[in-house]
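Give me the 3D structure for L,D-transpeptidase-like protein.
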Amino acid sequence: MRGGYVVGALAGALVLMATAGCSSGATGSDDAKGAAASAGATAGDTKPAASTATIAIAPADGTTGVKPTGEVKVTAGNGKLTSVKVTGPDGVEVPGQLGADGSWAPTGTLQVATAYTVDALAEDAKGAVANARSGFTTLTPDKEAGTSDNIADNGEYGVGMIVSVTFKRAVKNKDAVLGGITFEASDGTTVKGHWFGDKRVDFRPESYWKPGTKVTIHYKLKNVETSPGVYGDVDKDEPFTIGRSQISTVDVNTHKMAVVRDGQQVDTVEFTAGKAGYDTWNGVMVVEAKEGTTRMTSAGVTKEGSGDEYDLVVPHAMRLTDSGTYVHGNSWSAGVIGHSNGSHGCIGVTDTKTGSASAPAGKLYDSSLVGDVFKVVNSKGKTVDPSNGLSGWNTPWAQW
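Predicted structure for L,D-transpeptidase-like protein (400 residues):
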């Protein structure tokens, strides 16, 4: 039931009272008229019996700092509620309903930092009505979750795009947060969320998106308590579109990449992958950023003094993992590209030192979108962890 709770019996009672007050045995006799007048005066002087029903409204009148959920309740004693209306400054009624015990409570979440008014009516066994009015103000959050995601309004993404939502503060009420982030797809695609720890939740469909799908993320988190004393900070709609399909299969054995666009192979790209000890991850990885020209160093990759250190500026860099796996231009390995594996885990494609749009790496870069899929097969490396970049496609749907 949306809005306040009203029972028709109250309206009926008021109608009956009005009818009784207007009826009289009028005749042409002066005595009769006098008697009727006397009777009318007597009736008019009679006050309605006070209702024995009582109304209790929680929180108490004037309370501030009320949580948006779980604190508002209206109950009747020695009678039953016939109407409850809770309204904010805009006059819109808060949806609510009666419970099994006859009490009324909201069915939704109130807004934070908002003043509300409660008007309630109750009726006793004789139909006499009691009324009560109260007001309270919801809390103003002291702490916010710090919500962000990897989507730009009206952006275009590849079919493998995974929406990753992160929080600066750890989330305890995960189900409540999931309820405040919903997806609407033009083709009805179902989207589910999967938590990686307490500060990140990723969303994807069961299979890759269909090209041309229009998607809107509905964020309604401002009134959601994400953790004790911490509230969401986003209420907005965020639209994006899925572009054409481009899925590249990277075969480490053959050193060749098959680029398939909308179901048709459009290119074969030679590359070099990770050498022994630095094997490229197997599995599905997704372009999470197109970074252009990027500096790459061996810090955290090779041991100092090993003779295998590097410090390079590389063109046409597309990031595949948070740990540093890229598809990028390579101008220094002409002898191994297409023949053997010589990188430290990245996928190197022929390019010039500063990057050329006409080089294989430049063409691949320009044809790619964030959200495009690169599937690595036949590497001696392990399968990439689903939390490493946008690699959630490596988690089965039943476990997502």
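The chain has three domains: 5-138, 143-242, 246-399. Let me know if you want a second pass.
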